[in-house]
């Protein structure tokens, strides 16, 4: 936790917050914080700054905060991701949030196992928990927008074209395709497939309905949780 | 497992292998393989090609293999990594192997918790197991060379200079430093710190003793397992 993230409900005064639960535990066990310590803080959806720990015991921590810095810029990106397996989903949500992806669409694909859709990690509260961990890691305050599309075809035909309009539309896909571009200056829509990749029908639909073009990162097949940071670091 | 990796001990004839254990289980449970199936195979440290499944039962699989393709090129990189926490170490070893890092040095740092050095995941057999998973993921046959340096200063002063000679020496380090270069053409020595980063003394020693220069990836603080693929994808 490189940033102590504050929610509206934590505020007991204009510049005063009171914490308990996970963040209090973290202050005690990881930061080994004491009254008087100064910590980086941020208000969820708002500014970042400094908090001074006024009091701390087993039940609560109280901080006086001063918030005056804007959070870091987001990437100009919509990421369309075939739903990863549950354990990987958790880590990918943290990565997406930490790297500054503002919009994530989790979508079905032929090679997504049906059971993945049953995971409790897809519940809104569980998704939010992982996104918050990513913000705390990277020092950001603004939650990405995550949407879930359980049907590939209607999403790609009916909603993706509007999302992709005016962007560079790319499909991360191993094969005989152009290399993924570097340091692009324009907004990007990037579709990353499941373990095993998109099937040809899906690549065709992403191309034809939404104008996305396949690009590759070399002959090595990467896990989704590796491909995501690799593609984003190369693109931006 | 995108490549069935064969070891010398698997060969029962010049082009004939016999498998049991983990890989047999994977053939049954994930590939749902049947006699006659063709699979991508590679010989550890050697060539890649195709295997035809001649027989398969609960005890063994037998394949006839034809090996004629070189494995993919490695990155021109020596990666010096502060020892991550054990769970992350496992994933990072897979990533390093999958992305084609030929040489990894796991090193101590002030912010590496002492307990991390006690993990059984640092035993040679455990490291090898994770590296193999990375090779199977990415379709490569050549194990990276992993060395362990439990003392930072003697490593950086006595051995790192020779490793870094003739390479672009970089320290991945958040802060007011030049941006990490892109698409470099020369060999690189890259040092990535622990969670919390290198301490100033360590950065100074990496600079002065071995000529490495700090570079940054932006103001977001990334977990080590995200920073590794992000830095590699940007550099190469």
From TrEMBL, chains A, B:
EC number(s) given by UniProt: 2.1.1.193
Entries under InterPro entries matching the protein: Alpha/beta_knot_MTases (IPR029028), RsmE (IPR006700), RsmE_MTase_dom (IPR046886), tRNA_m1G_MTases_N (IPR029026)
Keywords: Cytoplasm, Methyltransferase, rRNA processing, S-adenosyl-L-methionine, Transferase
Ribosomal RNA small subunit methyltransferase E methyltransferase domain residues: 73-234
GO MF annotation terms: methyltransferase activity
GO biological process: methylation
Pfam families: Methyltrans_RNA
Compartment list: Cytoplasm
CDD domains named in the record: RsmE-like (cd18084)
Reaction(s) the record says it catalyses: uridine(1498) in 16S rRNA + S-adenosyl-L-methionine = N(3)-methyluridine(1498) in 16S rRNA + S-adenosyl-L-homocysteine + H(+)
Task performed by this protein: Specifically methylates the N3 position of the uracil ring of uridine 1498 (m3U1498) in 16S rRNA. Acts on the fully assembled 30S ribosomal subunit.
Family designation: Belongs to the RNA methyltransferase RsmE family.
Designated name of the protein: Ribosomal RNA small subunit methyltransferase E
Organism: Ectopseudomonas hydrolytica
């Amino acid at each position: 936790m490189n940033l102590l993230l504050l929610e509206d409900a934590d505020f007991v005064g204009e510049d005063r917050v009171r914490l308990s639960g996970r963040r209090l535990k973290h202050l005690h066990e990881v930061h080994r914080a004491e009254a008087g310590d100064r910590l980086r803080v941020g208000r969820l959806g708002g500014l970042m700054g400094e908090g001074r720990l006024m009091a701390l015991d087993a039940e609560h921590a109280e901080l006086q905060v001063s918030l005056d810095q804007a959070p870091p810029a987001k990437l100009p990106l919509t990421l369309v991701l075939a739903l990863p397996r549950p354990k990987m989903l958790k880590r990918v949500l943290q990565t997406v949030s930490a790297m500054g992806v503002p919009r994530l669409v989790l979508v079905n694909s032929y090679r997504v196992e049906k059971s993945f859709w049953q995971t409790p990690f897809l519940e809104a509260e569980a998704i939010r928990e992982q996104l918050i961990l990513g913000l705390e890691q990277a020092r950001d305050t603004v939650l990405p927008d995550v949407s879930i599309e359980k049907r590939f075809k209607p999403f790609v035909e009916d909603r993706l074209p509007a999302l992709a309009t005016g962007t560079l539309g790319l499909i991360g896909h191993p094969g005989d395709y152009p290399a993924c571009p570097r340091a692009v200056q324009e907004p990007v829509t990037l579709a990353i497939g499941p373990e095993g990749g998109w099937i040809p029908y899906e690549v065709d639909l992403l191309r034809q309905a939404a104008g996305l073009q396949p690009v590759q990162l070399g002959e090595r097949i990467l896990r989704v949780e590796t491909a995501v940071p690799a593609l984003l670091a190369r693109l931006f």
